[in-house]
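[Q] Does anyone have a clean structure-token version of this?
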Amino acid sequence: MTTAAYPHLLAPLDLGFTKLANRVLMGSMHTGLEEERGGFAKLAAFYQARAKGGVGLIVTGGVSPNLRGRIAPFGSELSHFWQVNKHKQITKAVHQYPTKICLQLLHTGRYAYHPFAVAPSKIRSPISPFTPSAMSVRQIKSTIKDYAYAAKLAAKAGYDGVEIMGSEGYLINQFACIRTNKRADEWGGSIDNRMRLAIDTIKAVRAKVGEQFIIIFRLSMIDLVEGGNSWQEVVTMAKAVEKAGATLINTGIGWHEARVPTIVTSVPRAAFTWVTERMKQEVTIPLITTNRINTPGVAENILATGQADMVSMARPFLADPDFVNKAANDKADEINTCIGCNQACLDHVFEQKRASCLVNPMACYETELVLEKANKSKKLAVIGAGPAGLAFSVYAAQRGHQVELFDKGSEIGGQFNVAKQIPGKEEFFETLRYFNKQLSLHGIKVHLNSDLAIDNCAEELLLSGFDEVILATGIKPRKLTIDGLDDGIANGKVLSYLQVLRDKIEVGKNVAIIGAGGIGFDVAVYLSESLPADSAEKPLSHDLDAWLKNWGVDKNYQQSGALLNKADITKHTPTRNITLLQRKPSKVGKGLGKTSGWVHRANLAKHAVTMVAGATYKAITDQGLLIEVDGNEQLIEVDNIIICAGQEPNRDLQQVLLAGGLPVHLIGGANVAAELDAKRAIRQAAELAVKI
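[A] Here you go.
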């Protein structure tokens, strides 16, 4: 492995009793495989792929040290000797490569999704339906012993260490903060008392496993909630963690209930490394920084400027298991970059489904979605260069098929070219960069501005020797039935979302958006936040200080939790009056992802966007849009109405191709057009490529 391209990132880290191959930590992610029947064999393959890809240190998904600390009733736990053999599958698989692996020990406390939840005090979490029991002193001491015993079992299983989860609002973090710790005994009150659970746990673990065992402590350096710790309290705790025997301190950012986004795609890259850098002045053991680090260049800069000693990346290793090796071989342009969407990873976990990755559906399916060489190489025509068509082309070419890609547009990307223009979604540029590189690497012929005529396309493709055709032609608008719609279209009052986002047609000051799915929200964000072409400002996702102030984060850390006073948070003067409407009576945006939907709603609220549910569209008039809500008619006076609802699969070529004798496969929007869904489109592409 060369260090020329990224010398700091690829430099080894000497921990005294052991050495890490580089400064890259694969951060903890719960995948759902921990609870599946036969899941540990799949987990072993998952982690092994990342070890083979060059990562220096892996931290597993959270495993509870006892029953009450489980995430859910059947959540993963390590507290019995018979459980060791399951974990040995993982450590043996990883240790075939020069990678270390640590088991994360996580007690959920009041975040537990079961009625046996316990916490420092009887205070229910806003994100859990169960009120916890306040722990007795005996339970606290028993829990500390459980941590130590779980660590001993981890060592028996072959793990190189453990990470003790002390952040993100879980049990140890709950004890550390007055927000959730109202105790009047020796486990509450002063920071010295509140941090006792953390410190006594580290000491107990160290006593049980000895000196030559990695102990990472995940310290909440910035709580981002009212009642969180002050900077001085965090420093006090960090110094005590170091003294207690921790090997490394990992940076924890924000509680799960915090109303500040910390990992979604609109968060600027490396948005919180400043807090790790500040902590480096206070302790001497190596510090790990984290959150929204997704390229080797960003990671290298963090280490080169002394902000941290290691970087933690979790989701980027879902997107590309070979991240480190590609960086080491100076092939960063071949990395499948994490776009921070959360749609297939965190959203799946919260829905109690197996995690995966939108841009890499093979993640967590390493033993099931396998791109083996095809028995017979076929010549395949892929029509449509959107997410589905791009993904299929690359996967099929990897299997040895001869692939040609056709698109009527002048560039690849399809709907991704729309998405990349939305403020906060600039990461989609990375996905298109990746696919462009893969098309070149695999010798895939790309025919842009293609003029395949519907009536003779089958003949053209047959004459060219294609064996099968994959239709990835996306969606087309479905005509809505609203009185006055045709007149509105004719006079320019009514626009489609493509006319706004792709064609850049001018939009007036007063706007109604019909349809509050992902497209509707994207249009609302675009109209609220897009800067004029001649603006000297940078978008929030590229201006860290402005982004922090917008979300109420105090970089100077003057108050507990590092939250700004409400008066100091950025106030937006709306540039437009926007009304976002949906037919469904449910909460507007309910169908958006669990981990990102609240961010989108909060963001639009900052821009005073009006959200209306249960709307019936009565008529479009010269004055605006007439709607009915709860039996009451109202006229929304607008300059423009933007249609973000009503689409159907674009299958115009299907029957012509079938009639011409060519086998046809439908993927992506051409298959189902309920909502533009890149996650489903790319996964369909992978599933078809594996079997074709």
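[Q] Thanks! Anything notable?
[A] The chain is about 30% helix and 15% strand.
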